[in-house]
Design brief:
Blueprint lengths: L2 E6 L11 H15 L4 H8 L2 H11 L4 E5 L6 H13 L7 E5 L4 H8 L7 E6 L6 H14 L9 E5 L5 H9 L2 E4 L13 H9 L4 H15 L2 H16 L7 E6 L5 H15 L7 E4 L10 H6 L4 E8 L11 E2 L3 E2 L8 H18 L4 E6 L4 H21 L11 H13 L1
Parallel strand pairs: 2-3, 2-4, 4-5, 5-6, 7-8, 7-9, 9-12
Antiparallel strand pairs: 1-12, 10-11
Helix pairs in contact: 1-14, 3-8, 4-8, 4-11, 9-14, 10-14, 11-14
Amino acid sequence: MLFTQKLFNLSDFKKELKSTFFKKAKTNLFSNIKSKSYGFINDLYEKKINDIYFYAKKIKKSENVIFLGTGGSSLGGKTLVSINSNFFKNKNKPQIFFLENIDEVSINGLLDQLNMDKTSIVIISKSGETMETLAQFFLIKKKISKTKNYKKRIFVITEKKKSTLKKIQEEEDYFFIEHNDSVGGRYSVFSVVGLLPAAISSFDIKNFVEGGKNFLKFMSNEKNFDSFFHSSLAIILSQNKGINISVIMPYIDNLNNLSFWYKQLWAESIGKKKMGITPVNSLGTVDQHSQLQLFLDGPRDKFFTIIGRKKNKQQKILDCRYGENKKLDILHKKSLEILLRAELEATIETLVNKKLPLRFFELDLLNEECIGSLMMYFIIETIFCCYLIDVNPFDQPAVEEGKILTKKKLEII
């Protein structure tokens, strides 16, 4: 594997690996993975990477690309693009923007900065009925429609069925890209929804997909599964000790968006029937100066997931001399990488000393294959944990009421 997992203060839960409910959830999971009954796994193995590169090539002709979508339609692609932004250089790639909210001020602020003659729009809505995404589109349409041949720069990703967005695409003759109807939004990072923006940013989607496949192969060995998913079982059983918050804290700036992606994946999947654990995202070292005090000395109701990487061999040594023959000794001839690692290890040690439940993922490399394996791990873990508490990982019934009420309020305004 391209990452390792170290567990702290979780030994109490090891005996539960032999429990009936753990074995039952594992059997259910293995059966569905083997039969490829999960849409995202079926899609993973049938993925036509060349088609995605074809779409990306058409879109990359523009200087700017704006993705319209919210939740699962945005977070996966946004995560991969942000991972790519600093570590893989490509001066020819277009600027990529994700519009997730419907704040008119921020949207217009972006549009005013862009040359709309050289901008492409990608509209993503699985159902084709997402109100926010449709509203974003009509706001932007007014501006982009004043440019030449604008219809050739609008791309629609939705299911191939009757819907408002599909009807718009057909009437306006925009380019259509089919959204797999068996892949839910929060599980779509390995589908065209996540892979297309990644490919536009020159992220190696082939290696990313291989990373996902490799993790599935790795966990098919029950010994490997029990080792890696011991912590998943601990998250669920920790509720019996009053732990109902799961903190994910990467010490890598480029994984900040991954923590937002994880938060949606986990919350929408497991929060049902008055059960579930609340996900909270944090960022090291930044949140050592804001949230860590609460984490360490506040309520003992949190499970911690910290993500780091092995030390980067290419480090810039700090020259901390100043004034006349003075220097800051504690940092002199150190590096930011050394400081980051010291703070990460200090945080882990402090949490361990406080006897708080903790797991630490260490990535060998921050590359596409490793990220593919890590994201597949979190997807499988989410489904598995839902099975452990007997809830459906794939629906989200509670949010439907809010959608219905929103439409009613729009009708009377």
